[in-house]
Amino acid sequence: MTQLKDTETGSLLGSGTGRLHLLVIAAILLGTGAIILPNGLARMGLATAAMTLGMLYLGVMILENHRSRNRRDVFETVAKFIEKDSAPGFVTAPDGEIKAQNLAAQSQFGNVYSGTLAGKLVDRFANPSGIIYRLQSRAEATGSAREDIVTRKEHVRLSVHDMGNDGFVWRVETIADRQIGRSGGEQAGLPMVMIGRTGAVLFMNDAARELIGMRAKSLDQLFTQLPVTPGAIMEISTADGVRNALIAETDAGVGRRALYFLPAPETSSQSRQWQVFHDLPVPMIKVAPDGSVLSFNRMASGLIGIGLSEGVHLSSLMEGLGRSISDWLADTLAGRLIQKSEFLRLTRSDREVFVQVTLNRVTEEGEPSLIAVLNDATELKSLEAQFVQSQKMQAIGQLAGGVAHDFNNLLTAISGHCDLLLLRHDQGDPDYSDLVQINQNANRAAALVGQLLAFSRKQTLRPETLDMRDTLADLTHLLNRLVGEKITLTLSHDPVLEPIRADKRQLEQVLMNLVVNARDAMPAGGEIRIETECAKLTAPMTRDQVTLQAGKYVILRVSDDGTGIASDKLQKVFEPFFTTKRTGEGTGLGLSTAYGIVKQTGGFIFVDSTLGVGTCFTLYFPVLEATEVPEAAPVLPPKVKNARHGDGVILLVEDEAPVRAFASRALRMRGYTVLEADSAEAALQTLEDESLNIDVFVTDVVMPGMDGPSWVREALKVRPDTRVVFVSGYAEDSFGEAQMQIPNSVFLPKPFSLNDLTETVHNQFH
Question: Please, are residues 100 and 3 in contact by the beta-carbon 8 Å criterion?
Fold first, then answer.
C-alpha cells in the first residue's frame, strides 16, 4: 500500500516555526510588561500589542495548517494514483526528499524511509544525482522528462513529471533485455557490449560472452575490420571463427555506446526473428523491393511520426536523396551500391528531423527485401550547417576585406592624381568638370568599398558613449525624408535607456540601411516602427547559432508591415550581394554592412519575418557599465592659423607604385624633402646612412616581406624621436595593438586625399 511520510506536515511547517516562536516570545514579553508597568497608558498600549501579536500568531497558524492540508492532499492524491503501478514510483519534494512511494518501489528498494531519491538509486547508477538533476531541470522547463539509461546489469527508463511547487513524480521502469527467438520455452538476451570513448569494451552481457566465447577488451578484438558501421553486416571474431552479424548501436550516455549483435539476415530461416527488432532501441524499417513499408519497430515509429504505417512508400516519409528513392533501393538490391548510408530529411511537418539511413539486403522465404537502419542525425546536420555557414561567412569576409584593400590602393591613386590635376585647373577650364566627376565617382567607389570593409569587420571605428534616444533624435529628420510621404515613421523609446559604446556615424548608417529596406518592402505605403528598450538577461540566451551572455542590453527594433522575406532566404539576408530586389535597385550590401558594423561594435542582430505580414530586425547592444571608463577623446593641439608647411625630411615607404608616386608629389608640393622606398627592407637600408636626418616615417602597414609596424620598431631603436604616419587600406583595429606600442604614431586610412595626407604629416611636425 502507498505510504506517505508522517513528517510531511512538520516539514511543511518547519520553515515558519522559527518566526512563530518569535511571535509567541514577543507577545509574552509585551504581556509581562503590561502587568509590571505602573503607568496605565503604557500598560494599555503593551497589552494591545500583545493581543495583536497573539491574534497574528493564531492567524498564521490557521494559514499554515490550511496550506499543509492542501499540500498533503496533493501528495495523497498523487500517491493513490501511482499506488497500483507495476513500476516503482516515488513522490519527492523539490529538494529530492522522498515523500511517498508505491508498492513496487517498496518491493524493489525496501520499505525503509530515509534520504532522497538519489540515495535509493545509488546502487543502480554511477551518478544518480547528476541524472536526477538533469531530468528535474528539463521537467521544470517542459513539464516532464524521460531518459533511457543502459547500465551494466539492465536497461532503465527514468521518467519524471513536475507537480509545480509541490514536488515531482518519478517512475523507474526496468526495460527487459532484448529478446531473440524462443527455443525450448526459454529466451536468451540479445548480445550487447558497452563501448567507452576510447573504444575499450567496458561490459559484455552473458549473451555476448556466449557468442564471442571470450572476454574482449577492445574493439579490434571483436571486429576483423574497423571502424564499426551501425546498420551494416560486419565480421566479428569468435572462439569458433569469424561470424557475420548485423550491428545496431544506441547512445548509452556519458560518451558510451551500446553495440548489439543481431543475427545476419541472410537466409529465410531468419524471417521469424524479425520480431526481435520491435523492441530494439534502434529505429528500423523493413522495406519491400518496390519501396513500400512492410514492418517497423517502436523506435522507428517514434522517430518518423504518425506518417509511418505499413504500405506507405519510403519516398513519402523522407526526401533529399538527390535521385529517386526507387533507384536507390534497386541499386541496393542489385549490389551496385558502394555507399550504403545516406542522409535524408523526414517529411514530418511538426519539426525538422534528419536521419542517416543504412540499407541492408535480406532474403526471406526466397523473396528479397531491405532493412533500413535509421539514426537521428538532426543535431549532426545542425552542427554541419552552423559550421558551413560560419566557414562561408568567414571566407566571404576574407574575400571582401582583400578586395577592399586592393581597391583602396587603386582609389587612392585615382583620387590622388585627380587632386593633383585639379590643382592645375580652375573652374573656368573645360576639363575641370570632368575632373570633378572623376573625383566624385572615386568617392562613391570608396564608400562602396567601405561597405565591404564593414561586412568583413575591418573598417575603422571611432567609438564613443551614446544615448540611443539622442542618436535617433538627430537622425529623425533625415529618416523622414528617406521614407517619403506614403510611409509613417513611428519612434518609441524606453524612458530609462542606458548608454552604449558605438561609432555614431556607423550606427546611423545601420539605421538608415534598415529603414530604407523597410521602405522598399512597402511600395504601397505603411508604417515603420523604431522601438528602443533596456532589458536584462538573467541567463545566457542562444539564438541563430550565437549566444548572448547574461547582462544588460539596449534593444533596438526596426519593424515594418511589408511583403516579408521567405524562410529559405532569411538566413542569406546578411550575405554580401544577396538581394531580393530587381537588378539595378540595390547592391545587396546594405544588410551585410549593418551586420558587420553591429558585430564589430560587440552587438548582435537578428531578423524575424513572415511573408505577407512584415519583417522585424532586432539589435542588441551591451550596456556601457558604470565601471567602464570611456576612452578620453584625444586632445588635439590648437590649430595654428595659416600654418605653413615648413621644411622637413620624410621617408615614404609604399609598395604600390601609383600610390607612392602620388604621395611623393603631394608632399614635395608642400615643401617637404621626400625619400622613397618600395619595401621595408629598402627603408631600413636607407636608414643605415647615419648622416640622414629623418623627421617623419610615412609607411604602408601591409607590404610583402616585413610589414610596416615591424620595420618601424626596428628603426626606432636608433631613431627614437622620429614620428610615424601609418597608412592602410584595412582598418586601424586590424593592427591596433601593434600601433599602440609605437610612440608618436597616427593612422591614416586609405583612400586619402591630397589634403588628408599633407595635413596629417603637417600635424606630426607640430
Answer: yes
What cell numbers appear for 201 in the block?
569494451
Do 611 and 516 touch, CB atoms closer than 8 A?
no
- CA 651 remoteness from chain centre: 48
Question: What's CA 743's distance to the chain center, in Å?
Answer: 40
Check if the beta carbon of residue 293 is closer than 8 Å to that of residue 311.
Answer: yes
Pairing of strands 614-622, 604-610: antiparallel
| 3-state secondary structure (DSSP) of residue 146 | strand
Please answer whether residues 374 and 247 qualify as being in contact, where contact means their C-beta atoms are separated by less than 8 angstroms: no
CB contact at 8 A, 214 and 220: no
Helical spans, DSSP H, in 268-360: 298-304, 325-334
Residue 594's pLDDT band, with cuts at 50, 70 and 90, is confident
The C-alpha atoms of residue 646 and residue 29 are separated, in whole angstroms, by 93
Geometric angle at alpha carbon 396, from 390 and 401, rounded to 5°: 125
> What does the chain come to in residues?
766
Grid cell at residue 422: 585639379
Chain-centroid distance of CA 496 in Å reads 29
User: Grid coordinates representing 616?
Assistant: 522585424
Q: In Å, how far are 177, 325, 553, 708 from 285, measured between CA atoms?
A: 21, 15, 50, 65
Residue 645 CB neighbours (<10 A): 16
* Alpha-carbon gap, residue 454 to 468, rounded angstroms: 21
The partner residues of 369 in beta bridges, in order of sequence, read 362
Cell 502587568 sits at which residue?
35
Give the neighbor-by-neighbor strand order of the sheet with 241-253: 201-204, 192-195, 256-263, 241-253, 233-238
- Whole-model pTM: value is 0.39
Cα distances (Å, whole numbers) of residue 657 to 177, 405, 754: 79, 15, 16
Nearest-angstrom CA–CA distance, 513 and 529: 14
**Side-chain half-sphere of 589: how many Cα atoms within 13 Å?**
16
- Given a contact cutoff of 8 angstroms between Cβ atoms, the answer to whether 167 and 211 are in contact is no
Q: How does pLDDT run across 468-479, given as a tens digit for each residue? A: 888 888 888 778
**750-754: which pairs have CB atoms within 8 A and are 24 or more residues apart?**
750/408, 750/409, 750/411, 750/412, 750/659, 751/408, 751/411, 751/412, 751/415, 751/416, 751/442, 751/446, 752/412, 752/416, 752/727, 753/415, 753/416, 753/419, 754/416, 754/419, 754/420, 754/423, 754/662, 754/666
Cis preceding-peptide flag for 751 (omega within 30 of 0): yes
Packing angle, helices 657-669 and 754-765, rounded to 10: 60
Residue 661: helix, strand or coil by DSSP?
Answer: helix
Residue-wise pLDDT for 486-497, tens only, equals 888 898 888 888
